[in-house]
Amino acid sequence: MDTFDSQLAAPIYQILFESIEEGFLVVNKKGIIVLANPRLHELFRYEDKEIIGLTIEDLIPKDIKAKHVKLRENFHSSPKKRSMGEGMNLKALRKDNTKFYVEISLNHVDINDETFVSALVTDISTRVQHEKEIIGLNKNLELKVEERTKQVEKSQELYSAIARNFPNGTINVFDKDLNYIFVDGKELFQLGIKSEKLIGTNYLDKISSEIRPKIKESLLSVFEGHPKEFEIVYKNEFYKISAVPLKDSDANVDRILVVEQNISAQKRISIQQSEALEKEKELNEMKSRFVSMASHEFRTPLSTILSSNSLVEKYQEIGEMEKAKKHTERIKKSVRGLTEILNDFLSVDKLETQETPIKIIAFDFNEFLFEIVEEMSSIKNEEQTILIQIEDDFKEVKSDPNILKNICYNLLSNAIKYSLEDGEIIISAALRDGFLKIEVRDQGIGIPEEEQVQLFSRFFRASNAVNIKGTGLGLQIVSKYAHMLNGQITFESAENKGSTFTIKIPIQA
């Protein structure tokens, strides 16, 4: 059995340790690291397996080590899935005593009555640096605007000196009717407009009627003596307008200074940064779900294999071969389950890296469908039935039989898993207007309506299916395969009534 176990462990560790881009570790109740992947060693600059045996506090800056021991003990006393480092600058300590910023996703697993904590470690140093740079740029920009505004207030000569070099906008002075008294800036130069031609004309006449009411109301309010700052969006461009009152010798506000700046570039950077942060959060959540799913899905069959292996050896020694055979079958079943999980992972990886080629050939679809159903019959419950309905008398189609087989296999596998023990499953096929329509219908547990929007998300498991084995990857794989063939997938489902999945694939002539 040793050879068998090593053959099984190799692909599992290859996927779980070598392909994960984040650092991954497992610690026991005492905080000692018992498992760490190569990426973790790389992040903390340790040699291979050098981290094993260290405590988790060895990877934490000295000033917070003592505090962390208490936090770790509290987590072990009441373990639950959580994230660390979101919204704050959490640091980790490398072997060479350098520090870097991290986010950490925690989970726990109980093995042989002992609680272990697993963690995904993400290096966010680059992101933190970018955030600091953006904050610095914004502060620098605001300081420049404030400084130039004060200079403009001093004299008309300073207005011109600053305005003519003002980037991506204009500096203006308006009277109470919002007529130009002064205007200049690089924006005018880029548009080929001379400031002299604008003096005496009305500012509101130069702007679109769509944004005119808001600008007029905001600028006129500045004549009451209070500065005003606001943003305008027009034709996918962003403008920041800052206005301050200018007083005459009698302390009356008779003019306003208006700085108008095109901030589209900064806004787009900010939007892109926000979107990137949101995607990163989604990725971290997905990775946390992966760790949780993997811990659950791998733990049960591996435990079964381990216990059955011991029992097989025991029963063989005392000559009870029937009992030994029973546990051998349990091992085989667990291996098949692990193989299905690994196949799902490998299928997703191939689809993501576009390593799955498309091979269009002509083949007998009737024979193809009956072979799939016959193959799936070996994994269904004895009382379950799978019916085939082919509406049209067609045989030969042109498509990729391997991709279609994966689609049908995943849909039928789901129908079997989520149907009652004596449930009926129907797979039907029809050829209409150059499209092959394949439909798989079951009378199983169905999908809660409020969760259906997430159905094709990676690692998604419906709340009523958490106790049924699965990776949450099957429907995403089906969706990607359907799109590879320029097809589409739709579904109808009602909780406790069943689900119907429909695939429409264009068939080549």
Give the end-to-end Cα distance, rounded to a whole number of Å: 52 Å
The average pLDDT score comes to 79
What amount of the residues lies in strands?
Answer: 15-25%
CATH superfamily of the largest domain: PAS domain
How can the largest sheet be summarized?
Answer: 6 strands, antiparallel
Give the helix proportion (percent range). Answer: 40-55%
Q: How many helical stretches?
A: 13
Per DSSP E runs of 2 or more residues, the count of β-strands stands at 18
- Assign an overall shape: flat
Radius of gyration: 33 Å
Structural category: alpha+beta
Domain count: the total is: 3
Can you give a write-up of this model?
With 509 residues, this protein is an alpha+beta fold. The protein folds into three domains: 2-123 and 272-352, 2-Layer Sandwich (Beta-Lactamase), CATH 3.30.450.20; 129-262, Beta-Lactamase (2-Layer Sandwich); 361-506, Histidine kinase-like ATPase, C-terminal domain (Heat Shock Protein 90, 2-Layer Sandwich). It contains 13 helices and 18 strands. A hairpin with a 5-residue loop joins strand 4 (91-93) and strand 5. Helix 9 (264-317) packs antiparallel against helix 10 and helix 10 packs across helix 13 (474-484). The longest helix is centred in the middle third of the chain and has 54 residues, at 264-317. The mean pLDDT is 79.
